[in-house]
Design goal:
The complex is a heterodimer of chains A (165) and B (253).
Chain A lengths: L21 E3 L9 H5 L5 E6 L4 E7 L8 H5 L5 E3 L14 E10 L6 E5 H10 L7 H7 L4 H19 L2
Antiparallel strand pairs in A: 1-4, 2-3, 3-5, 5-6
Chain B lengths: L3 E7 L5 H10 L10 E3 L8 E5 L4 H13 L6 E5 L1 H5 L33 E3 L6 H11 L10 E3 L10 H18 L1 H17 L3 H14 L3 H32 L4
Parallel strand pairs in B: 1-2, 1-3, 3-4, 4-5
The chains are: A alpha+beta (165), B alpha/beta (253).
Chain lengths: 165, 253
């Protein structure tokens, strides 16, 4: 009986625990960049373009060491290590997977903020009803850091007036 | 080309990829049936099998080996993530590399920066099947499977809303400590489906009990029990906060 595998001529499945090529699911990804922070070899990049209002999450399979830290930190389960392993290619461009998402617009000044629209939706979906005033939070949310600063100062001065200081 | 004779150079690899290359030569995987033979000198070789991120010390040796090869095919195969793009060693002090902006992709580094590479086989280390697949790709036996992809704005799905999403975030951190991410997250997904499918607390208790009894793995049984107790804890906390808020503001129930 032959011992040798017939692999390149017959398909082969990796075991279910096998950590193969990572993939980003564009339906679930919110573009928070947690994976880019966690990635030890910087295989995942988070590239912001504040002029055009886009954020790119770039995954380079040719740099990935399959440590699965991205899978561990992903808040929505968008990054998954699949059991696929056939990543050999003659062109490095084949290894790159890009997810492009829109940045949220600031409610005050209309500039692009440093987070995506999907992140805002995710945060709003996390608030349990009854504890926080849902509609007021939703009204305030897409703010850039400058407008947030101004609003904080404004609220602080209002508080002073009320107390008669 | 009928047979590919390869010369193996280690340019600073951690030895993981080298062990996999040895594995490929064993009778179980047997790369020699594809005509690949490991030769002891670059003068006999068609292809240079490079592993490792190309350290400064190894650079000159690798260059000499490359120049000693016969000029006709002169194929370079980069095996492993390090050889493809630098891998975990991409910003090591010992590497021979050029300064570059870090936000360019595909990411550069490793052997591919100084030698014209014909075939990239990523993996850390690549399993023997991956190397077999790469060689088969070079010999046009198999089709290329991976493609570069660009996704723009499309449909967006949030699996859970409001209270359940909040519960999931809290349970995630706890179950990761108990079982780890691999089993824990899939178990949490199962548990949250039970929570969403049940109408009342009694029904959920029955469903969880049934799931625990049906589960064959004792680790997962333990995880389910823990998840259920954490879930009850979170629900109790939530009701406590609501009651406290009602007492302060004086909201009607």
């Amino acid at each position: 009986m032959p011992v040798t595998k017939a692999y390149p001529f017959e398909p082969e499945e990796a075991p279910p625990e096998y950590r193969g090529i990572p993939r980003i699911d564009p339906v679930l990804c919110i573009g928070c960049g947690a994976c880019a922070n966690a990635c030890p070899p910087n295989a995942i990049l988070r590239i912001d373009d504040p002029q055009n209002g886009t954020r790119r999450i770039v995954l380079d399979v040719g740099r990935c060491i399959r440590c699965a830290r991205c899978e561990e930190v992903c808040p929505t389960g968008a990054v998954r290590l699949t059991t696929e392993f056939e990543a050999a290619t003659d062109d490095r461009g084949d290894h790159v997977e890009v997810v492009e998402l829109g940045l949220a617009r600031c409610r005050g000044c209309g500039k692009y903020t440093h987070y995506t629209e999907r992140q805002v939706e995710k945060v709003l979906s996390l608030i349990p009803r009854g504890i926080l005033d849902f509609d007021r939070v939703r009204e305030k949310l897409p703010l850039c850091s400058e407008c947030k600063l101004k609003l904080t100062v404004l609220n602080a001065t209002k508080f002073g007036e009320v107390d008669g200081l | 080309m009928k047979s590919l004779w390869v010369f193996h150079v280690n340019t600073g690899a951690c030895n993981g990829c080298d062990i996999e290359i040895l594995d490929v030569l064993t009778p179980y995987y047997d790369i020699e049936r594809l005509g690949v033979k490991l030769v002891p000198t670059p003068r006999h070789a068609h292809a240079l099998l490079v592993t490792g991120p190309l350290t400064r010390q190894a650079y000159h040796a690798a260059k000499m080996a490359y120049e000693a090869m016969p000029p006709k095919p002169r194929i370079v195969i980069a095996v492993g993530t390090c050889a493809c793009s630098g891998g975990i060693f991409h910003d090591s002090y010992a590497l021979r590399r050029e300064y570059r902006e870090s936000l360019e992709y595909p990411l550069k580094g490793g052997t591919s920066e100084f030698l014209p590479v014909h075939l990239y086989i990523p993996g850390c280390p690549p399993r023997p099947e991956e190397i077999l697949y790469g060689v088969a790709l070079l010999k046009n036996i198999v089709e290329k499977k991976i493609r570069g992809e660009l996704f723009r704005e499309g449909t967006f799905v949030l699996p859970r809303e409001s209270f359940n999403a909040w519960v999931e975030v809290l349970l995630r951190a706890r179950i990761r400590k108990e079982l780890g991410y691999f089993d824990g997250y899939s178990l949490l997904k199962r548990f949250m489906e039970l929570v969403e499918s049940s109408e009342s607390k009694e029904e959920l208790e029955k469903l969880v009990e049934k799931a625990i009894n049906d589960e064959g793995d004792s680790r997962l049984r333990y995880g389910l029990e823990k998840l259920y107790s954490y879930y009850l804890e979170v629900v109790r906390t939530y009701e406590g906060i609501l009651a406290a808020k009602r007492a302060i503001i004086g909201l009607p129930k």
